[in-house]
Amino acid sequence: MKEFYSPAEAVAQKLPDLPVRPEDFTRLARREGWRSAVNMNGTPLSRKRKGHGGGWEYHWTLFPVAAQRELQKRNIVRQQKENDSAATRGQTADRVDWDWFDRLPDERKTKARYRLSVLEAVCALQRGALSKDRAVYAIANQQKLGKSTIFNWFKMVEGLDRKDWLPALCPRHAGRTKTVECDPRAWEVIKADYLRQTKPTFSSCYRRLEKIAENKGWTIAPERTLQRRMQDIAPEILVLMRDGPEAAARLYPWQQRDRTELHALEAVNADCHTVDVWVNYPGEKKPVRPTLIVIQDLFSNKILAWRIDLAPSATAVRLCFYDVFRTDGIPSKAFLDNGREFASKMITGGQKTRYRFKVKPGEMNGVLTDLGVEVHWTKPYSGQSKPIERAFRDFCNDIWKHPACEGAYSGNSPTNKPENAGSRAIEFEEFVALIESGVAEYNARPGRNTDVCRKHKWSFDQAFAWSYERSPIRKASEEMLRMAMLSSQPVTARQPDGSVWLMDNRYHAEFLWGMIGSKVVLRFDPEDLHAGVHAYHLNGAYIGFAECRDKAGFSDIAEGRAHERSRRKMQKIIRERADLEVKLGWKQVADLEAQVRTEPTAAPEARLVRPVRPASGNTALEEEFVEEPVTLDQAEQSARILRVLQGGRND
After folding, report:
1. Would you say residue 589 lies in a domain?
2. Residues 404 and 310 in one domain
3. What CATH number does residue 106 fall under?
């Protein structure tokens, strides 16, 4: 409580029996001699004011009695409003139970604060010119309390530091503490019966307990008494036993993540959602509820891409990412759940933390791994981990429940569906157009209440565009886009022109002439087969792009003539390319060859001759043989030749 007041401060309090102007207050002080007044201890009750302007300050006990009472009343009210639960503890804190005081209800704390304000008012009067008895008497009359009551409160804080008075002044009554007798075994039985996830009512559990207790001879307490005891069990235990582990996990406060530190396309999250609408899907005999695959930017919450498929599949996920790569760029991080469509080898193969499927040595990387996207796995159906779960709830209100889907809306659960659910089915083309319009409206809606948009009242589109222009964006090249497209099974380039066939569509390009009879791998967009395909070797090397060749009517003359013109043009191009490739004609090559034609050579003469001895019985040789006389020189020469042939020496 403030003790000294200047004339201006005293007048500003607007106290009873005091002047309303500072100069009148100064004349009152001079007339009453306040500047020379002292208390019982001889302490001056006035002092010179420090600071600019000077002047005098006067103790509040010099004011008229009515003014003093009003100041005391205001001080008590102020003390009651203050929260002293966080006050610093004094040296005697070990003599009082602050923890016990913190656990008390506000009603009892308020009583303690009131008692403390009364004692402080008495102490304030004592610091003036009043004794303790007179101060207690004055405050007792003012607050309509007994003097003995105030003295008893002083006894409660006797010997305690002023900072530890509050818990000591708190009422100590504990209320009714008497308990009804109940057999401990009966208590264990009703706890085991009541604390089950089937959530039986307490009355039904108590009726079963009565039968068991009568059979066993147990003494049990009344139903309401046991029910109060059951509520005294820790609430987290009640939630775990009756609601299950997931409900108990929700008791832990969820983590609030700050996404303002990101930038556009730095991180995305994706998920699949089965739409709550019956759709006449192409190729299906009955209406189905298709799956929507969505990719969302985490900085701005903008929906970047979406695809529709009959069921969650890696193919649809890959094409959805392909749309993001083609229109916006390549994100640095992707937050996905561990579903099969996201954890497939086609999407995340090669990631270090892909806890699905068997990892084989040398397996190929997924498209996200090849493009350097860091994958983070999240908990399924967790809105805190994937904000896209919130977007699906908005889609339910804005798209699934659109007037165009009336009768086709199936509800989000068997117990939460309209009476006309399934009475009709929306056409696929109409539903796709509805999603396209709904997503565009979702992105363009202004005044979003996110941390990024709130300050400027942006839409998701505006927040994304603002950050996109100022952030480093990884753009995808044509090669990267082809990598992101669907990988098909190998096909064979057929005779005689090398055309490749895919889903009854024929594709052809000039480079396929060199692949006739060989296998090639085609990559394509299954939702736009007429856009053409990209061909690769089996080892992954890119070959080229092949256009789709449309079928023509059997009697379509215009198509036939156009086809003939294209064929003649192709033949002309091939002829020109061949002329450029081959510079010489065949006659020129023949003339050049004639100039270097090789003449036949003479047969060599043998220096050694081996005699040929015909086999016996050869009558033809015998008839041609004519015996001639052999001279001595001839016999000697023949003997020498024979010795040489037999490995001897030629003496």
Report:
1. no
2. yes
3. 1.10.10
- For residue 37, the enclosing domain spans 4-63
Mean pLDDT of 435-450: 94
Instruction: Dig out the tokens for 563 from the structure.
Output: 């086809």
Pairing of strands 291-297, 267-274: antiparallel
∠ CA 413-414-419, rounded to 5°: 110
pLDDT-derived band at 539 (thresholds 50, 70, 90) equals confident
Do both 312 and 423 map to the same domain?
yes
Closest to 265 in 3D by CA, of 327, 317, 339? 327
User: Tokens 């959530």 map to which residue?
Assistant: 199
Residues 292, 419 share a domain: yes
- 564 is a domain residue: no
Per-residue pLDDT tens over the stretch 496-511:
878 888 877 888 888 8
Tell me if 238 is assigned to some domain. yes
The whole-angstrom separation of Cα 536 and Cα 554 is 33
Which residues are CB-contacts of 501 (< 8 A; sequence separation ≥ 6)? 491, 494, 507
| 308 has a pLDDT exceeding 60 | yes
Alpha-carbon distances of 597 from 146, 313, 579, 593, 600, rounded to whole Å: 146, 70, 28, 6, 10
For residues 128 and 196, state if they share a domain: no
Q: pTM of the prediction?
A: 0.54
Q: Where does 496-636 show beta strands of DSSP type E?
A: 500-502, 505-508, 519-524, 533-536, 542-549
The identity of residue 270, as a single letter, is A
On whether both 22 and 92 belong to a single domain, the answer is no
By CB neighbour count within 10 A (0-12 exposed, 13-18 middle, 19+ buried), where does 644 fall?
A: exposed
Q: Do 476 and 326 contact (CB within 8 A), yes or no?
A: yes
**Residues 6 or more apart from 603 whose CB is under 8 A from it?**
none
Bridge partners, 413 (sequence order): 416
Distance between start and end Cα atoms, the chain: 153
CA pair distance 262, 323, nearest whole angstrom: 22
Residue with tokens 């939460």: 416
Q: Which residues contact 110 (CB under 8 A, 6 or more apart)?
A: 80
Cβ atoms of residues 354 and 314 within 8 Å? no
| Across 445-450, average pLDDT | 93
Domains in the chain: how many in total? 5
Report the interhelical angle of 147-156 vs 106-126 (nearest 10°): 100
